[in-house]
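Journal club prep — side note

Before the paper discussion, L.F. wants everyone to see what a predicted structure for a comparable chain looks like in token form. Sequence:
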Amino acid sequence: MGILGSLGRKVGFLTSSAMMLALAVPASAQEGSELRDAGEPASTGNDIVVTGSRIARPDLQVASPVNVIGQEEIQLRQPNTAEDLLRDLPSVRPSLGSATNSGGDGSSNVDLRGLGTNRTLVLLDGKRIVPFGLDGIVDLNTIPTTLIERVDVTTGGASSVYGADAVAGVVNFITKKNFVGFQLDASNRITQRGDANQYRADLLIGANLDDGRGNAVLGIGYMKRNSLTGDRRSVSAVTINSANGLFSGSQATIPVLFTSPSSTALGLGSGSLGAILNPATGSLRLATQSDLQDTAGSSYIQSPLDRFNIYAAARYELTPGIEAYASGSFVRNESAIQQTASATFTATYNLPLSNAYLPVGVRNQLCAARSISAAQCALAAAATTPTSANYREVPVIAQRRFLENGPRGNLFESQQFQVEAGFRGDLAPAIKFDVSAQYGETSQNQTLSNWGSYSKLQQALRSYVNTSGTPVCSDTSNGCVPMNLFGPLGSVTDSMLDFIGLEALVRRKVTLGVVTGNISGDLFGITSPLADKPIAFSIGAEYRRLTAKSIPDAATQTQGEVLGYGTRTPPTSGFISVKEAFGELIVPLVSDRPFLYSLQAEAGLRYSDYSTTGGSATWKAGGSFEPIQGFKFRGMYQVAVRSPNISELFQAAVTSAGNLSQDPCQSNLPVGNAGLTALCIATGAPASSIGSISAPSSSQINVTTSGNPNLGVEKARTYTLGLVLTPPQVRNFSMTVDYFHIKITDAISTPAAGDILNGCYSAALNPNYTPNAFCQLVARNPLNGSLNGGADTPGVILAGSNLGVIQTAGIDFGMNYRLDLASLGLGGNPGALKFGLSGTYLQYYHYQATPNSINRDCTASYSTNCTNPRPQWKWNGRVGYSNGGVDVSLLWTRIGSVHLEDYNATVITPLTTPQGGGPNPSTVLEAFRKIKAYDFFDLSTQFRVSEKFGFNILVENLFDKKPPLVGSGVGGNPFNNGNTFPTTYDILGRTFTVSASLKF
């Protein structure tokens, strides 16, 4: 009732507030938006605004490229979430979303140019949206898709117009306004295999008020996405080792697996997988791959989502030329990620030799490994309490997965509300103003269920058999139930699981307040002597305050207490306030002259004063040149900055999971190499573990990150040069070609784990095997030398700094053409053919985290360092036919070929040119080192039965194309999921969507 009550109160507040405002006050007419040429203005009320500029005037176009997804395209794609609409865009690199599991947080993000989600600004009607978490990133799941009129995507930087976070560009969702009537939309999506269902229903109601002086619109929506686990698809059914293509299970097994003491210490010879309990003999033997437990089947390849949203907006003309407006939204999301059952994992436990369930054979082997005599071992076995003179414990890493408890759940419940109110209108002829204030909150509860408590498990292991033959705990507090690690499946009872059970909770809250105002229009009517349009200007100021805090419970604050969580979540809080002033000019220099149809200049400046990083300025300068009508050249140069977010500044040290296919110290790699052996020991491996250090567990290692309060702003210089063709001689045709170049210096970055490991252990980078600064950032498990473990294993320490450099360049291209068949002399209603193409060619992407790190070339590559694939070619092509009643359209998505990041064993730091720094090819199966070009096709058919009713049938992945198989350890976490890259390549298979729309 608490959640429902809160929901009801907020829904009621938003609805009543918007309707009351509509009766007393808000804005004006908006025409329906279709696909437009880049840079063409679009109406948002009485003001005409182009995304990428704050100047409101109907005759202006900006020089920055603007990719527009119009209402027609939205209807063809039938998106249930904003992620569905953006994920396949050529300028977008897939980020967190429905196909991410381990490493995900339940949100969905957008990443322009692959420069990072924290460098892409997401707006709603040109205004900021309250972020999802401490990193300042907006969750796309909060965008109400049924209300979207169009989406404007501005790439190449927009910080001078919108402020920090817009280094890569802006995604601006424009909502429907001045809606009149009643509209009900519903859709159902299901795969050919009868799973991964998605349902959506939306209601939109709008009305004009007071003879058109006002308008109010109310939208209510519900969407449910069912989960899909990896065992439902052949590519993800079992975990595949990227090194050899074979099954790769987790080291936590049934029966129990020991990795410390090592198999050598246990007298079994060398075995990197460890020593496993032989149920037939009650002793230990060498483990093999067939003994290991698969972890893939219960992990999500489509995460669930349950969303309810309500949006209300209203406007009213107070006096001629002055109107008030307001909007409010509320979104309740429930999403989750899921992993295989909890376990003891690689944490160190103190195991009493008197443990009630410890087999005699195993006890004897443990005693021998610790040089405990047979007599002492027997006495210790008989000791009943820690106070007994003969009582002994031995530290072990003993792994057993609690399959009896089912999968581990990670539930994210978030509630977001945001309200805005303002006034806009005319100050004077051709001069407009807009003043507004907004406030938003995101509240999130993250609940960990079925994970278990380390401290309670340790208590349950301290057990013995009493005189009546019953296992009991040495410490009986809290109703302790002894844990049986050593029995077969089913031997862990419900009462055992109940005792070690733990439901951990992390609460997060983010608030955003913004007050902004600007004046725009004609600059006192000043006009160039050779132009017929006056100079346009915009000036304004903005104040923002962002606060964020994380409030974990005691268990999640304690490193290693939540079994398998790996991440300590310390309490973190901080705030950032910023005061900004900005201005912009668009200067028509020449218009409609012989051989100079149009010449226009554009400039903008923003000064920001951050409470954390002080003052900084961003600016832009550019223009367009159109020698003859329909042939336009455009260019823009921008200097942008980004101030660090709350997480980058204030996050306390956190240990989490990172991907790695091979540890330089694992197995026999250091054996016979004295220098490498010494480095392995210097970074925390016990000397006795050399030769038996296990490979990364499930291709994952511990990595530790933290914020840095001394971070400064990062700087970006971007320029775009382009051509826009809209020749009047060819009706309904447009084409754009734009070259982009972006360089970010002082980039806020952390070195890749591979950079640190290579810098320490590689013979090429450290030929004398000297302990260096990289080695100081490696802290191994003190018991078994691996990079996996609990609270005592930081793993690879990733420190943030302003030492990074990111560079990327490429070409965006697009074409649209509509051929009216009636123009060919065909009678009746022959309809029209439509052709569209939008693509990106990536010339290069280079990333260097620090001056001493590899300057990696991630162009057309993937790896644990370059993470998910970054294809050189990517495009969407659409061909369709429409006759007014029926639309048939085929969408072709092509993802170019990619390969494993290049390896260069002879590279020496510091680097001045991009170099290969990927994994040694010998550590990755040859078949997994390259992914060929992929083509996906979607077929959409729309039927307009009447003006009031229509329906759509969409078939995605028409030919049921299977995703590439690359194994589980070849790409970065969380994108390498289900042995493939499901955020890039469709893993669901052929999918059908049926949707309908009813209007009154």
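L.F.'s comment for the group: The radius of gyration is 31 Å. Keep this in mind when we get to the figures.
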